[in-house]
């Protein structure tokens, strides 16, 4: 099957039409596109969505400081808000993002909301980082060996 593609300047976009007979329109601004079927289909979004959420949550310095504070033990939202120059609703948004990434677990206790670390996803991120750290160390070791061999050949 051939797919023709015309640019429509008045619309500012491409218009595409399939031709089952395989005849390509020879008008100007027409191109033939060939589509190859993918060799394998997999959804990386499922694999990395947890990591993406974790790293996104960790990208903000305020959220990292919240995690550092919670590493010392559970704290209420009010206790977490003291060192920061932000409103209580602003802090709640940061805690909610950490909670969505499952880095923090909040629990209502009476009239307060207590937060504590939920480190399972931090462990996933640490494992991912360790995997890539080992790969890069192996590559750098091989590069060092190669450079030493080349240096020895020159002498």
Features of the shown structure:
3-stranded antiparallel beta sheet, alpha+beta, 155 residues, disordered N terminus, 3 domains
Would you write up a description of this structure?
This protein has 155 residues and is α+β, with helices and mostly antiparallel strands. The chain folds into three domains: 2-33, no CATH class; 57-118, Winged helix-like DNA-binding domain superfamily/Winged helix DNA-binding domain (Arc Repressor Mutant, subunit A, Orthogonal Bundle), CATH 1.10.10; 119-155. It contains five helices and six strands; from the N terminus they run E-E-E-H-H-E-H-H-E-E-H. The protein has helices spanning 44-58, 61-71, 77-81, 88-100, 120-154; strands spanning 2-8, 13-19, 30-33, 75-76, 104-109, 112-117. The strands form two sheets. Strands 2-1-3 form a three-stranded antiparallel beta sheet, with no helix packed on it. A three-stranded antiparallel beta sheet has the order 4-6-5. A hairpin with a 2-residue loop joins strand 5 and strand 6. Residues 1-19, 22-26 and 42-46 have low confidence and may be disordered.
Strand and helix map with partners:
Blueprint (H helix, E strand, L loop, with lengths): L1 E7 L4 E7 L10 E4 L10 H15 L2 H11 L3 E2 H5 L6 H13 L3 E6 L2 E6 L2 H35 L1
Antiparallel strand pairs: 1-2, 1-3, 4-6, 5-6
Helix pairs in contact: 1-4, 1-5
Strand content: 15-25%
Low-pLDDT parts are 1-19, 22-26, 42-46
CA gyration radius, whole angstroms = 27 Å
Shape: elongated
CATH class of the largest domain reads: Mainly Alpha
Helix segment tally: 5
Q: Note the main sheet.
A: 3 strands, antiparallel
Strand order of the largest sheet: 2-1-3
SSE arrangement, N to C? EEEHHEHHEEH
Give the CATH architecture of the largest domain: Orthogonal Bundle
Helical proportion, percent range: 40-55%
> What's the CATH H-level homologous superfamily of the largest domain?
Winged helix-like DNA-binding domain superfamily/Winged helix DNA-binding domain
Going by helix content, strand content and strand pairing, the class is alpha+beta
Give the total of beta strands: 6
Q: What is the domain total for the residues?
A: 3
CATH topology assignment of the largest domain: Arc Repressor Mutant, subunit A
Could you tell me how far the N terminus lies from the C terminus, measured between alpha carbons in angstroms? 61 Å
Mean pLDDT, all residues: 77
């Amino acid at each position: 099957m051939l797919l023709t593609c015309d640019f429509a300047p008045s619309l500012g976009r491409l218009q595409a039409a399939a031709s089952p007979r395989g005849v390509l329109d020879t008008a100007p601004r027409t191109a033939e596109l060939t589509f190859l079927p993918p060799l394998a289909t997999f959804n990386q979004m499922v694999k990395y969505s947890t990591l993406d959420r974790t790293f996104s949550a960790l990208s903000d310095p305020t959220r990292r400081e919240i995690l550092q504070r919670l590493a010392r033990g559970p704290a209420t939202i009010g206790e977490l808000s003291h060192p920061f120059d932000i409103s209580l609703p602003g802090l709640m948004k940061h805690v909610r993002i950490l909670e969505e990434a499952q880095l923090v677990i909040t629990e209502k206790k009476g009239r307060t909301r207590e937060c504590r670390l939920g480190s399972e996803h931090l462990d996933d991120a640490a494992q991912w980082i360790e995997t890539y750290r080992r790969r890069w160390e192996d590559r750098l070791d091989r590069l060092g060996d190669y450079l030493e061999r080349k240096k020895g050949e020159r002498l």
